[in-house]
Fold these 2 entries.
Entry 1:
Amino acid sequence: MSVTPFRLPVIAKLRREAIEALIAKGLRVDGKRDPATPRSVTVELGVIERAEGSALVKLGNTQVMAGVKMDVGAPFRDTPDQGVLTVHAEFVPLASPLFEPGPPDENAIELARVVDRSLREVGAVDLGELVIRSGEKVWVVWVDLYILDHGGNLFDASMLAAMAALLNARIPYYEEIETGEVVVDRSKPPLGALPIRRRVVTVTVAKIGRHLAVDPDFEEESVADVRLVVALDDGGRIVGLQKSGEGAITREEARRAIALARQAAPVYFKALEEAATSSKADGS
Amino acid sequence: MKAAHGRLISEEGLRHDGRRPDEHRPVKMEVGVLSNADGSAMVEFGRTKVLAAVYGPREPPQRFMLLPDRAILRVRYHMAPFSTSDRKSPAPSRREVELSKVIREALEPVVISELYPRTAIDVFVEVLQADGGTRTAGVTAASLALADAGIPMRALVAGVAVGKVDGVLVLDVDEVEDSAGEADLPVAGAPDLGLITLLQLNGVLSEEEFEQALDMAWRAIEDLVRQEKEVLRRKYQGVSRA
């Protein structure tokens, strides 16, 4: 059952008015950007050696780590010639006073499903290349999102972390033994990169009062009526949308939000590209 | 199962069930279908059948949930085990958790919750038969059930999903079109307020297609809300004559 949030951060009314007044003037509460510009973003790859792929994304004060692990498993019955991609998100209690230990709540589930759909709908990972034996053995790719510090806008940071960790992932070495079993051997060098066909980012646009702004920080998010998460691929297509939050938007605001998202998306694509290039230079 | 379906748009531009691209399936709406609930409604979009019930404003079982300045909304979207072709486990799936959230958030903007502080308004949506469009039929049924329960609302809401099959935008996708289609855009809104209250996109659309799809959805939502008003008016006219 989904319940109206009853444990919310307390934001003074004056602060709320200040945030809104700033955005009306084309400024932000952190003082360094306009409504179409995300906070500073860094993407670091290969932060967890045990994982097949990993990334740490810092977006302002928000930190999200993503780890990719791969197992050999059975394909879904209706897609015998495709590997399996699964995204999960953990709102780790150390990340925010608002997070409690326990199974994923509706916010964690929504986040994981939005990231999952955005990757899936464009075929970001070519799952057809992840078949070991048709109908029997395929690679199961787990993307686990770990929210480490909640400074607002978990959607964009998590999408970036997932995409970056997938770009960083290497398929482990495996052998088919006589019984037909497939044995993974991580002591041997990995086989190669995952087949990534498209890059996807999300840009979250918050509606604060009557104004729109991308990449809300924690305070902005707390006073926002509603957010529209816009997923865009590297071909400029809209590959997903999710309205999230108690409020509503007009059709005109939906169109303007998509235009703002398009304006901001290159910042995220650039951060991904820089991470991918620098990790190639390191030979990792 | 994408490869299993052939062309979904015929030479004449008609859909697999004979509909035009902008044609809704037959819609049925009925209110007051349950005796215990404070308000209830059944909505059918073709073979999709959804039942909604509203209880409240009432005291919730857990008082720590209460808010001092408004009622909380508690919404559950749930599919009956027999509603799908393979039996659906009655345990809530991740999909149902997400849809409960987006349906709640589609209703929050229209319920005047500040009139009932320290109470809960419960909305239960049960999908009895699923053939595509269950969340949008669910929002439509919930809107009717809330009105039927006499909960003060700023406006009525309704929902519809626009899909893209064989490159053509189609209104009110059914399950065949949804599973084979290239995009699914569920939209719900309150036309009387000019507000979109639910918006999701699963799939790929150009900006131009998005605008066309949103316009197509909006016209259908306006029509659905007209039908909601008609159904409610009929019921209350019946009451005044009795």
Note: The helical segments of chain B are 94-107, 134-148, 175-180, 207-241.
Entry 2:
Amino acid sequence: MNIVVAMKQIPDLQQIRIRNRQPILDDVPLTLGNIDKNGLEAGVNLRDELGGKVTVLLAGNENIEDTVKEALAAGADEAFLVIDDSLDRAESSVIANVLAASIKQMEEPSLILFGEGSGDNYSGQVGSRVAEILNLPQVSFASSIEIKGNQAVVTRSLEDGEEIVQVDLPAVIAVLADINEPRIPSVTQILKAGKKPKEVLELDELEVEAGKAMVITTSNLAPETERKRVVVKSVDELIQALTTEGYVGR
Amino acid sequence: MDFNLSKEQLLIQRMARDFAEKYIEPVAEQIDRENKIPDDILEGLAELDLFGIPFPEEYGGAGGGYDGYVLAMEQIGRVSGGIAMTLSAHSLGLSAISVFGNEEQKQKYMVPGCKGKHIVSFAFTEPGTGSDPKQITTTAVKDGDHYIINGTKRFISNANWPGAIILFARDDESGKPSGFIIDKGCEGYSISEPWDKMGMHGGMLLDVYLKDVRVPAENLLAGPGMGYPILQLGISFGKVGVSSTALGGMLAAYEEGLKYAKEKMHRDKPISRFQSVQLKIADMAIKYEAARWLTYRLGYLANNVKDPRQFAKEAALTKTFVCETAFEVTRLAMDIHGSYGLMNDYKISRLYRDTIIGPQIEGVADMQKMIVAGLTLAD
């Protein structure tokens, strides 16, 4: 079973410092999105169970050649990379066009996996857009995937319950963070990652009209909240206040 | 000159950090309390190749070099000094086999060691030796194609685990110390209860008793009377691990001090706003950066040792500085905590007990300074 896992290169969120309410991105190491890593783990587990190979697919600036080692260390068999500086801040539709064109060049994957949203912008659009371009069925919010013959049985975790759906392969599936626990690669796997096969294309070699829309984030702040400043004089009053606010006794 | 880590080095560092935070941190207090590393942690370390980072793949190692080793050991030491100490002593023993062993010895003892199936020991110290190899009293008497070994070894790490022990004894032929590879648990090998030391719990120190232990002559390491060169170079490699372990403890103390300074309020403001606390934070930052790059440099130097004497000097000066500085940083972080730091509820109290160990083990600080001075004056 050939599985493609699409991943996004992002700054390591744990190492970003904030100054004047703006993130400082200079010299922050690059990594892959956390939920993308769940997608990779799901792909690697299915490959281990059913055979085949996992191809990790990235589009971004030239640093992805280094960043992808993380996915190759964590179990991917090979990488397909599309490099162009313009892809660094490209909008979801552009990335979807690039990824779809890349997938068309591969030997018909049975499964194309995404994380539900990227680690930086979390637009959650790229998987759906790729499915649309490739005219494939898609399932989102996946918390488990089971392959039965030429179909996938997918559990979708929704706010008010779980839905189990069956979908013909090939299909696009976007996974949730709780689908699995991504593995920690060993030293040997890390050191062998750079030696795994990679196909590296420049964007213009892909022959696709990807579009030029960019994302420019002008502000990215948590909403300011006013404290309620409730003053209590006893434990009884505290419990009463917390009950009124709905924090206890629900 | 480029001080950036490669992607592989960053991934090794993060791998060790992730494992330490996710699996060791939840049991770090338990390890301190019980002086025992849970089996599943040892299995996890083995799965990630942390028992054999710097050693060649042909002998079961990961081929990650000593540069990868220092990065991983710092992260393990940041969460558990005892586990890092265990790995450090193990790697010291393996390094002696790696440098001085013949092909058969490497295949037999390094492969299970690097894979974490065995945990290796290195036994020089005796009740009366201190750091002076001339005082060694353990004897090896040649008997046909065997040696018969008798004596007592003191403060030996990992002596309770199955695997090889690199043991030094005065052989009757050369009259000098020789190194032997002995299977722990063989007939005549016995151990004491672990010493009840003040810190680095989980990393156990025991005494080893050898009573008429018969060792095949092929287990002699490098030849009769080669004990001193093995000891000198082996311990130099050991200092890479000890320095990295101390660096990890220092990083943890630095982080604890910083966190406490930002959280502890006095007159409605965090104590980090007070200049006296800021000076301590600056001292911690300065000391950590200096120690970090000295340790990383030692890892780099250990990858390609051309002159064992020069390496011995670099290892001794690094070990001295980093271990002494680790305790200084912990003391600064303790001072930031004030009385709270004395309470076992606060992590800094464990770090204080852990980092005080470094300057005393694998050659006390004064002995290291004598090595540095001796080799500097000889140059």
Note: The interface with chain A takes residues 7-8, 10-12, 15, 18-19, 22, 47-50, 53, 57, 62-64, 68, 72 of chain B (CB under 8 Å).
